[in-house]
Write a structure and sequence with these properties.
By secondary structure, the chain is of the alpha/beta class. The chain has a single domain, classed as Rossmann fold (3-Layer(aba) Sandwich). The longest helix is centred in the middle third of the chain and has 25 residues.
Amino acid sequence: MGAHLKNLLSAVGELRPADRGRALLSDFDWQSHGVSHPYIIFMTGRCGSTWLTSLIRKTGLAGNPDEFFNANVARCQASTDGGLPGYLSSLAQRQSMNGRFGLQIDAARLRDIQAAIDWQTVFPSSRVNTFFLYRRNILAQAWSWASAKKTGLWHLQASQETAGPSASEASPDSAELVTQMVRIRKDEQFMEEFFSTQGYEPYYLDYESLRCELDLEMRTILRILSLDYAEAHEPPTENEQTVRRIEYTEKSRVLSDFSALHRQALSILRRRRLKISPEEIGELFCRGKG
């Protein structure tokens, strides 16, 4: 049993042992919980998911999506000792709105918990709307991952007054950046294989489009959920920031040096962003200068 699953089961009071041959969450009646449109946001981390879910919540139309299968979130949300079924039932009642209930999940947690859930019956493709949030700029995403791990600073609320991490605290070296890019592609490949297995056809949404075309993308998300954007309590604006971007003092300099050195490899990676294999990324950047 992986650490993510073990911690989640502990957080929700699941007493039954996890058995690879038996799902702990094997069925769920969405209709009896008043949920007509459950939805899942799949993501690979450091791609704006916290910002996106905060924007969805502020519309007041599509519930309160969150990382409900994250043990840290589950410890705050779990209100019963009913294990995974009781936990999801409680969430569907408390965190849904207008018949919409959403959750987000990253690749690491999905790997750990997928066997504990019968996805075909609990989250069937015929009922669940799915989204896949990723970053076109995988190098910037790799920087964000490596820097957050170094500093322990993962999110920054708009109201927080915190200076950006210094260069010595945050700057990953070239090897760390390549390692993170390879890992991100492995996570993306894993998720796309999962989509195929479950019959999901998610709406692909990249962080850069969300930032540049916020109104368009938010309207699209709500339309997919059969909601009217005009009824949003607080329509998001491009200037609105519920979650602040973390500013790193040396990011532009370090990444521009890396990009110039590996310009050919990065060009190939950008052209084949969601087609290139993790192994090819490693080989490209191991060849030396671009």
